[in-house]
């Protein structure tokens, strides 16, 4: 038997698509060669770099520009290169020191950018177009200068595009595979995973993901209508799709945050934006101060009260030995009692003591008597011993609300109204104890049922520009400006004022740390990321979406510190035009086809029509979802935001050309000119490809930053007046 | 063709509930119009089949087929009666200005006084209010200064009554629309009941506001569109034309009141596209026929509304010919047409010269005049020098004197003209400070430089020098007053004088920030023109050449309106309403009164009605999903079920589309939003509820057997009616006024009704 087996030849049959290999190699060459040049911070590297450094140091940060996966990928690249996070990203053009491995920082985006090219090739095949079309699409992407520039630096667009293409490719692979094969579910899962990655890299990816879901549900709808399949089978297939395309991406999205939060466990510059509980979960920062504090607030506790609003800045309830001015600038009068404000810095004057109204003492009993929801308390200012008071006097800056003061008896028949009811708004039980850091508390003024509120208006000079605190009668259940949390806390031990002052000056004690669940942190972080408002900034190279279509703008990414060598984000104008033309042509053709089909004239057979519709759904749909949302955005926008949309156009152009070649010119056949027409089309396409290659070559110096060009040559590259190309005076 | 067949069972039942119970005495023979010529129209047949075949339950109560229309008419009368009585009840209470009456009442008065004003909405609504006031004897003298002002002896009831009457039509229209879409009186009556007894709809109809007028036109447009759809088999007949043209007129009306009218235009547009698509697929029609259809619709739904809309503006401009508070928002050329404006029939020197006193207006629309005053920038905001701002109103502090670089003394003889490229120094006439800029960051736009007033009596420093450039001009070109666009380039830093359009905080009197921008892009923000020009040494020319033509005025007023709209940004301290608040009735609006002692009116939907609507939206989606999956999977459904799913998908789809179109766009809007923006969407949502719940009740036989399913249907309907009526009884003080303690205090009339903490009554 062994002898027989030996007689059989050992054969490996492999099919290698040489075209695919060729374009892949070219893609790697264009994207990866001389990756560490220029050895300086280029454009938005200055932005992403700071987060990479923070990852390396495991310091918590919050970035509203996108979910954490993108940053993590960049950080992973840095980690591979042994980056230790010790580089200050403060200026575009700053030279990297030799300790920073620039190549590894830029490697992952460049790899993603290079892989986009073979992916586009494969995707065109999955859209059921020929290898020639696939080659065309790959070449368009390969020779697109703007994509090359965007891939070669530590930026996220190429990563986004890679995952979007991967998601579509693997979904279509799944869809096109025969329904009997089980291996196709691997493709479906891969598609779900890429969708999770797409949304995890940038929020804009959400729209591509939704498009994929729409395509998938259209396909599923057809499946439901297929009466040859049993009900059970349909159910199973639907469940599979939902699991892979909805559940998996959602779980992955949460998973990115899980990794993000478990990595970043040290306190950092953005702590202040988060709630006290969140801050306390980070090492250093607040947790260093609050560790070991007693959990339950009791009568006699010394506390600092932080407002739950972190806009404009986080602050603590504060008072000091200065009174409200008798008359304000506008002539209104005040109570002239002691000012109560909100102060954005840690200060000994932020300490308040919780007092039982029925008793005199300011120390904690043994055992401590905890304060519960609904209890009435008084708040005594630690340093001045004034009681927190409110009354029917208009507040200084918000006259429709009540003034809050530290009560001084001027004997002007203005009695003290210093009782406050504790209202724990995030309580779980009615008799819940007031807890340090965890409880969000409203202080309801007993006499007037107004609520202590941070109005957030800065006081004038007499109030040292601290923030105004008022009592507002109008309940608004949602407003976080009404909520206060106890941040620093200790049990008071000294009854005498002098001792107490000394006690307040001493730091709080130490001990166990408190944990909040991952979900609470995730929800808070996600909410903050979506709501943190950044100052709307104007940028020299910002542009409006309509300028992108015609490429009216460019972005200067880098300029050599002494020579004219420079890198710009400029697309290949010829490909750009080809893309726009094909978009227009597709729409025209689709309208004509649709109208004619409605009248019963079928220009193309049904199979071809389906292929045509699918092409439109993916490419034109993809362009739309990646472009239209920008028109509605208030953000500062840049040309590179258009790149994902552009890729869809490059996918569309060759496919549409093939469609025209094989189906449209069939009519010309009857006119006996078909061959000439088809030949003309081929020649035209070749000419266009050639000119694309030539323009690519022409703009190469601006894409790769070398060789350096003379001012005259640069002038020649300024194809549009609106482009901003830099010249250095010699 | 047959429409509006009711289940007679429900009719009598419903009527009995209302204690009106008119037995259909006159069983007049309804003349059914023959169901079109072509018998192919299956859908018509299906729709028309209606409920006559749906004989679930005991059939003892059938009424003769001929008399079917009569109860629906009686019901219509009932709806109308209830609607008018709820809206007109206590109309004149409270006798003071409530909420936005302060704006729209004031603007009505402006029409009566023919004073020009600026508002972000198109003029039709306010014109109608003005007209109603005029007809009812209001003389336009009440100032409408702030909410809470007593009307005293003014005739304000006419304006309120007009709005209330239009608001009363909404339930009637809803009834008719749903009847048309579902062929079921039950559905129609549910929809109408929801609207009649909704406190929100009552409140918003009772005051001088644009919303009742807007909603009237929206609903009228939808109604005529639906009626027009029913006429599809009688193309080009008189009634076909009537409903088509009426749709167009109502569209113009809706757009003429508020830009929200665009949404209903989109709705009608989509419906029309669908309609044309259907016609295109109808192979019995020739292409010429289709072209006719297309042209008829293009005329009635595009051209006609456009003409009407433009006419409204024409009337607006003709009526308002006196200068008023809105002048400063418009360009200099625009102002020259207003009687009483200083540019009206004015004459001034044509070319700018050194020594002239001028006002300088930013070219951004609603850009304001370059302004300064005796106030310094506060500490911490750049250098502590005098503020320079842009100010929308005309004021003595807008005057600047153009000086040469050095000399300050006036020369004798003809002064030299200022030419492109000349270096000038601008001295503020009132405070004698020079326009100045330096390398401090601007107060709001941090990347720009601060602009201040500096120096005294014309002595300053090199930072006071500006190079004046005429846009598109060459060296030596003179600067034409009003017509030249000029830029001021700062000599020392190279930046350009710029108005960012951002409003300064209180220290800057909420005027507009002026900066010096280092980005030299040519935008209207960095371009200015010379408006007033006083120089006794130069000959004056008449400015009547500048008068813009009607189209220019129209265009400009639209740009100003859009700018104004997007400029309504929420202020920092203000709690603003979010779109997701609205369907859950999260928070209302105070129309009148805050404290316990005052007469309070609070705009809040009847929570029961609104939550039923919300639940029905979910229900609708579920039902449609179930129905369409069943169809797609090829389950065999009964005839009746197929009709139900058709009504759900077609009629319900139209209403759902209407709801989406009137709701979803608000999520993308950056401007400040209020609760009352949801009301048009709420109308659609209520109609959808009527349709959905009706079909839900009728589908009871899916689960229960005949007698029980019939009982279930009845119980459901009764329960719904009762809960709406009872909740209205509970919440009616919201609309008709409350006094006494607030709801969270004991002893209040509304005690226990504050179901959500966010409600403020």
UniProtKB/TrEMBL annotation, chain A:
Ranges that cross the membrane: 6-29, 105-123, 129-148, 155-173, 185-218, 238-259, 574-595, 607-632, 638-657, 678-699
Keyword Iron: no
Domain MIR: 294-357, 368-425, 430-489
The enzyme's E.C. designation: 2.4.1.109
Membrane topology: Multi-pass membrane protein
Reaction catalyzed: a di-trans,poly-cis-dolichyl beta-D-mannosyl phosphate + L-threonyl-[protein] = 3-O-(alpha-D-mannosyl)-L-threonyl-[protein] + a di-trans,poly-cis-dolichyl phosphate + H(+); a di-trans,poly-cis-dolichyl beta-D-mannosyl phosphate + L-seryl-[protein] = 3-O-(alpha-D-mannosyl)-L-seryl-[protein] + a di-trans,poly-cis-dolichyl phosphate + H(+)
Pathway membership, UniProt: Protein modification; protein glycosylation
The keyword Glycosyltransferase is assigned to this record: yes
SMART domains: MIR
Keyword field: Endoplasmic reticulum, Glycosyltransferase, Membrane, Repeat, Transferase, Transmembrane, Transmembrane helix
Enzyme class: transferase
GO terms for cellular component: endoplasmic reticulum membrane
Domain of life the protein comes from: Eukaryota
Subcellular location field: Endoplasmic reticulum membrane
One Pfam family cited in the UniProt record for this chain: PMT_4TMC
GO MF annotations in UniProt: dolichyl-phosphate-mannose-protein mannosyltransferase activity
Family recorded in the similarity comment: Belongs to the glycosyltransferase 39 family.
PANTHER family given in the database record: DOLICHYL-PHOSPHATE-MANNOSE--PROTEIN MANNOSYLTRANSFERASE, PROTEIN O-MANNOSYL-TRANSFERASE 1
Protein name: Protein O-mannosyl-transferase 1
Source organism of this protein record: Oreochromis niloticus
UniProtKB/TrEMBL annotation, chain B:
The organism's taxonomic lineage, starting at the top: Eukaryota, Metazoa, Chordata, Craniata, Vertebrata
Signal peptide per UniProt: none
Protein's GO biological process: photoreceptor cell maintenance
Region Disordered: start-end pairs: 24-60
PROSITE patterns to which the protein is assigned, alphabetical: MIR (PS50919)
Source organism of the structure: Oreochromis niloticus (Nile tilapia)
Coiled coil: none
Subcellular location: Endoplasmic reticulum membrane
Protein name per UniProt: Protein O-mannosyl-transferase 2
């Amino acid at each position: 038997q062994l002898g027989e087996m030996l007689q059989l030849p050992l054969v490996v049959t492999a099919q290698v698509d040489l075209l695919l290999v060729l374009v892949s190699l070219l893609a790697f060459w264009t994207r990866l060669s001389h990756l560490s040049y220029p050895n300086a911070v280029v454009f938005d590297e200055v932005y992403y770099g700071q987060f990479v450094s923070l990852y390396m140091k495991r310091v918590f940060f919050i970035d509203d520009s996108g979910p954490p996966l993108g940053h993590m990928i960049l950080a992973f690249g840095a980690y591979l290169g042994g980056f230790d996070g010790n580089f200050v990203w403060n200026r575009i053009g700053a030279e990297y020191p030799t300790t920073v491995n620039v190549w590894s920082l830029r490697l992952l985006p460049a790899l993603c950018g290079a892989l986009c090219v073979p992916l586009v090739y494969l995707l065109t095949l999955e859209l059921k177009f020929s290898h020639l079309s696939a080659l065309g699409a790959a070449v368009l992407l390969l020779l697109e200068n703007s994509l090359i520039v965007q891939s070669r630096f530590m930026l996220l667009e190429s990563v986004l595009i890679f995952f979007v293409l991967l998601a579509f490719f693997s979904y279509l692979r799944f869809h096109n595979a025969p329904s009997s094969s089980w291996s196709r579910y691997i493709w479906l899962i891969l598609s779900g995973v890429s969708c999770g990655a797409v949304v995890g890299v940038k929020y804009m990816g959400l729209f591509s993901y939704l498009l994929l879901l729409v395509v998938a549900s259209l396909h599923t709808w057809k499946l439901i209508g297929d009466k040859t399949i049993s009900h059970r089978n349909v159910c199973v297939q639907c469940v599979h799709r939902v699991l892979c395309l909805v559940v998996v991406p959602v779980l992955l999205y949460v998973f990115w945050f899980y990794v993000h939060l478990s990595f970043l466990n040290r306190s950092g510059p953005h702590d202040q934006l988060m709630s006290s509980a969140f801050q306390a979960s980070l090492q250093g920062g607040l947790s260093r101060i609050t560790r070991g504090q007693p959990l339950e607030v009791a009568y006699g506790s010394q506390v600092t009260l932080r407002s739950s609003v972190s806009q404009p800045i986080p602050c603590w309830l504060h008072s000091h030995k200065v009174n409200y001015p008798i008359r304000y600038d506008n002539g209104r009068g005040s109570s002239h009692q002691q000012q109560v404000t909100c102060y954005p810095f840690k200060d000994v004057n932020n300490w308040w003591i919780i007092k039982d109204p029925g008793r005199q003492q300011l120390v904690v009993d043994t055992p401590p008597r905890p304060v519960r929801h609904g209890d009435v308390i008084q708040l005594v200012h630690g340093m001045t011993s004034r009681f927190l008071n409110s009354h029917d006097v208009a507040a200084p800056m918000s006259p429709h609300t009540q003034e809050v003061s530290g009560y001084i008896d001027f004997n002007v028949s203005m009695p003290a109204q210093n009782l406050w009811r504790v209202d724990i708004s995030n309580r779980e039980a009615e008799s819940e104890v007031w807890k340090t850091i965890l409880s969000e508390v409203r202080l309801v003024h007993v006499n007037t049922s107004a609520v202590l509120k941070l109005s957030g208006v800065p006081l004038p000079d007499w109030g040292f520009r601290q923030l105004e605190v008022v009592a507002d009668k109008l309940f608004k259940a949602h407003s976080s400006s009404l909520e206060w949390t106890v941040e620093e806390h200790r049990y008071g031990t000294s009854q005498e004022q002098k001792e107490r002052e000394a006690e307040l000056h001493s730091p709080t004690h130490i001990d166990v740390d408190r944990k909040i669940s991952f979900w609470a942190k995730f929800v808070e972080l996600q909410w903050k990321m979506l709501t943190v408002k950044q100052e709307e900034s104007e940028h020299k190279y910002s542009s409006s979406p309509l300028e992108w279509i015609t490429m009216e703008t460019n972005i200067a990414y880098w300029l050599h510190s002494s020579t004219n060598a420079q890198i710009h984000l400029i697309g290949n104008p010829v490909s750009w035009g080809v893309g726009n033309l094909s978009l227009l042509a597709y729409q025209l053709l689709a309208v004509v086809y649709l109208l004619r089909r409605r009248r019963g004239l079928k220009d193309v057979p049904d199979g071809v029509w389906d292929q045509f519709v699918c092409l439109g759904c993916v490419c034109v749909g993809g362009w739309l979802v990646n472009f239209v949302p920008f028109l509605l955005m208030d953000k500062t926008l840049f040309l590179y935001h258009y790149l994902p949309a552009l890729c869809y156009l490059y996918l569309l152009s060759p496919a549409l050309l093939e469609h025209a070649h094989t189906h449209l010119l069939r009519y010309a056949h009857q006119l006996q000119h078909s061959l000439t027409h088809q030949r003309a089309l081929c020649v035209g396409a070749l000419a266009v490809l050639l000119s694309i290659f030539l323009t690519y070559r022409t703009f190469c110096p601006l894409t790769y930053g070398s060789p350096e060009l003379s001012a005259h040559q640069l002038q020649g590259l300024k194809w549009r007046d609106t482009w901003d190309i830099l010249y250095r005076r010699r | 063709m047959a429409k509006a067949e009711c289940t007679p069972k429900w009719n009598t039942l419903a009527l009995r509930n209302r204690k009106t119970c008119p037995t259909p005495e006159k069983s007049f023979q309804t003349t059914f119009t023959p169901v079109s010529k072509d018998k192919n129209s299956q859908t018509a047949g299906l729709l028309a089949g209606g409920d006559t075949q749906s004989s679930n339950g005991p059939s003892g109560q059938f009424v003769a087929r001929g008399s079917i229309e009569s109860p629906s008419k009686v019901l219509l009368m009932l709806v109308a009666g209830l609607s008018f009585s709820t809206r007109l009840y206590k109309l004149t209470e409270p006798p003071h200005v409530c909420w936005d009456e302060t704006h729209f009442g004031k603007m009505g008065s402006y029409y009566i006084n023919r004073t020009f004003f600026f508002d972000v909405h198109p003029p039709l609504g306010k014109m109608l209010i003005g007209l109603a006031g005029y007809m009812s004897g209001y003389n336009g003298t009440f100032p409408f200064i702030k909410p809470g002002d007593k009307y005293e002896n003014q005739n304000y009831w006419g304006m309120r009554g007009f709005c209330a009457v239009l608001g009363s039509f909404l339930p009637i229209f809803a009834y008719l629309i749903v009847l048309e879409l579902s062929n079921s009186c039950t559905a129609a009556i549910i929809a109408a009941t929801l609207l009649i007894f909704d406190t929100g709809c009552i409140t918003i109809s009772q005051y001088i506001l644009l919303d009742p007028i807007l909603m009237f036109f929206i609903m009228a447009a939808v109604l005529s569109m639906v009626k027009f759809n029913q006429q599809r088999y009688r193309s080009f007949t008189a009634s076909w034309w009537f409903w088509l043209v009426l749709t167009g007129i109502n569209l113009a009306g809706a757009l003429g009141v508020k830009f929200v009218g665009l949404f209903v235009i989109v709705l009608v547009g989509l419906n029309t596209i669908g309609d044309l698509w259907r016609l295109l697929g109808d192979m019995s029609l020739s292409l010429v026929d289709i072209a006719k259809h297309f042209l008829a619709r293009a005329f009635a739904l595009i051209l006609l509304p456009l003409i009407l809309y433009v006419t409204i503006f024409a009337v607006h401009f003709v009526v308002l010919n006196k200068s008023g508070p809105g002048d400063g928002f418009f360009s200099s050329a625009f102002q020259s047409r207003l009687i009483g404006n200083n540019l009206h029939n004015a004459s001034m020197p044509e070319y700018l010269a050194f020594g002239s006193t001028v006002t300088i207006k930013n070219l951004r629309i609603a850009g304001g005049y370059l302004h300064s005053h005796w106030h310094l920038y506060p500490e911490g905001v750049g250098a502590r020098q005098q503020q320079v701002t842009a100010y929308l109103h005309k004021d003595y502090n807008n005057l600047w004197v153009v000086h040469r670089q050095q000399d300050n003394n006036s020369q004798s003889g003809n002064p030299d003209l200022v030419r492109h490229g000349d270096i000038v120094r601008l001295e503020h006439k009132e405070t004698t400070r020079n326009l100045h800029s330096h390398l401090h960051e601007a107060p709001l736009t941090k990347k720009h430089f601060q602009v201040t007033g500096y120096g005294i009596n014309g002595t300053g420093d090199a930072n006071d020098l500006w190079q004046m450039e005429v846009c598109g001009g060459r060296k030596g070109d003179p600067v034409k007053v009003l017509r030249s666009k000029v830029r001021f380039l700062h000599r020392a830093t190279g930046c350009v004088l710029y108005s960012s359009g951002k409003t300064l905080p209180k220290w800057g009197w909420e005027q507009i920030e002026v900066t010096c921008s280092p980005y030299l892009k040519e935008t209207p923000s960095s371009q200015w023109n010379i408006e007033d020009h006083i120089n006794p040494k130069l000959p004056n020319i008449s400015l009547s050449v500048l008068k813009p033509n009607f189209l220019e005025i129209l265009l400009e007023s639209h740009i100003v309106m859009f700018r104004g709209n997007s400029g309504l940004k929420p202020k920092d301290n203000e709690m603003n309403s979010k779109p997701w608040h609205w369907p859950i009735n999260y928070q209302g609006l105070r129309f009148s009164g805050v404290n316990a002692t005052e007469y309070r009116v609070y705009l809040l939907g009847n929570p029961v009605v609104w939550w039923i609507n919300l639940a029905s939206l979910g229900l609708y989606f579920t039902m449609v999903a179930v129905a369409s999956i069943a169809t797609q999977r090829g389950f065999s459904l009964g005839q009746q079920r197929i009709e139900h799913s058709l009504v759900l998908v077609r009629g319900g789809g139209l209403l759902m589309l209407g709801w989406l179109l009137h709701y979803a766009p608000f999520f993308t809007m950056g401007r400040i939003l209020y609760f009352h923006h949801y009301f048009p969407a709420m109308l659609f949502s209520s109609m959808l509820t009527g349709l959905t719940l009706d079909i839900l009740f009728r589908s009871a036989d899916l689960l229960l057997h005949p007698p029980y399913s019939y009982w279930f249907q009845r119980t459901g309907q009764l329960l719904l009616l009762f809960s709406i009526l009872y909740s209205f009884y509970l919440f009616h003080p919201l609309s008709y006024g409350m006094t006494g303690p607030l709801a969270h205090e004991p002893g209040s009339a509304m005690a226990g009704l504050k179901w959500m903490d966010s409600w403020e009554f």
